[in-house]
Amino acid sequence: MPFLELPQNDALLRFEPGQVTFHYLVSTPTSPTFVWAQEHASELASSLLADANRSTSNSTSAQAHGGKVELDPNFPIILFLPSECFSVAHLFSAQLANRMLSSHFNLIALDPRGHGLTKDVPIVQTAGRKYDLDIKAADCLDFLDLLLGSKTWQKGIHILACSMSGLVAARMGAAWPGSFQSIMITSPILEEETSFMVESFQGIKELLEESWHTLHSNPTNDAERRPSEACFAMDSCAKLPGEVVQGFTFRWAGSESIPHHISSYLSRTWLERLVLHEKGLEAARDWWFDLYWLRRRMPDASVASIRCDILVVEGDSDLPYDRNVGQEIAALFRNARRVKVEQVANAPFLLSVKRPEELSRVICEFLEIKEGQEETPTQEKMNLKLKLGMGERMLGLDAEERFELVKVYAPDLVADSDDDDEEDEEGHHSDEEDSDSGEGESSTDPEDAPVYRLRINSVGNAKKGTESRLSATTRTNGTGSRASVSNHLPSMPGSQEDGSGPVVRTLQETHL
User: Fold this and answer.
1) Polar residues compositional bias: what residue ranges (predicted)?
2) What domains sit in the chain, N to C, each tagged with a CATH number?
3) Which one of 246, 266, 268, 467 has the largest count of C-beta atoms within 10 Å of its C-beta?
4) What is the value of pTM for the model shown?
5) Taking residues 487-493, what's their average pLDDT?
């Protein structure tokens, strides 16, 4: 499956072999992973339902023959780097599934530490340093070196990075001079935050710490309970502080709303990793917070070594700063071969989510991809043979990966935690009965295994013939929370077709 282990390197906070294992997905012009996922999301959802009726051994055997997509040496690469706590698929879903980009580039969607399906890594106290921008950049470079077997790619490598990852991309360009054709930064932030932003982030940190202490010092969570009961009780009463929700929503979308499936994803992720986590914000420092606290300007000599093309794209409304900062960021790259700054009119900060078509257009123009650059008849015939195997490869992805794509490209098929307030309790009691009977247990504690929740009627309506396979409930290895998030980020209401209803089937789900 598309997971890649980085080598042990204590100086880079990798204390054991395989401790840092990156999740990634690849799309090529002949195997357009994200275009296929967008067009066949209901098939991916149906495959999750079908998995529930298959034995683990059969499922594993099927996956062994699919999933992995090899890079095409005939095309350049775009490496996608997400910001802050987003998974790369949620943040760049539109660009990854853009037909122009998908037909002209190898697309590599990478989840760094603590993002998406890549786990965070605890930093030992004796390490002597914290997880900062330089280490994140070194992680990404080691990933590329392992994946490509080289620091260069004959057809060229481009980086598309959002927000904080734009600063990471700059460090990558400085560390590997000449390796990258371009660095494209969307939704830029400053190298060093303003005092207002530092104070705001400190306030958010204090609110989260208060929520963590309130939850974990609750006397109702006594040690005499069964572990499953204690975990369920804690998850059920946990919630994010409203000020945190509102603060980040305004930072990213201003007066607009965040799409419902993204707000739900972020709410679940933050609740699990910032409030429910046994180490609270101390653990979050190891993949997110220290990137803020430890930010420093790049040395002039390092910036001067960056000579590739530079694109900076930003909105012009409801920005996190009192001004546009695109020109300031672009001015850092004084030796760049070409520098372009674009502003998207009447757009808030997070362009990839709030103005996806406009951002894709700017990127295609910058990369000089033009409409009409289609395949020749010979290429089309040859590529058709290759694309015929896409279904098998996609259904060969891990269940976690398939569900991640369903959440992004068919969010209406994913049950929200508010669909049925009693669903978690019913599933909880059912799990206890299964545990008592000893039947159907996996090799891991069911309470520690993640679950999938799908609107089964919606899946049935989207792809006929799945209703007969909806009776089973399964769990697999993984970690996660069954938290019911009671205060989602403000979002657009999820659409719901007639007949979809709140009928929910719990299956294996990611940790989100």
Assistant:
1) 468-498
2) 3-194+295-394 (3.40.50.1820), 195-293 (no CATH), 413-507 (no CATH)
3) 266
4) 0.81
5) 41
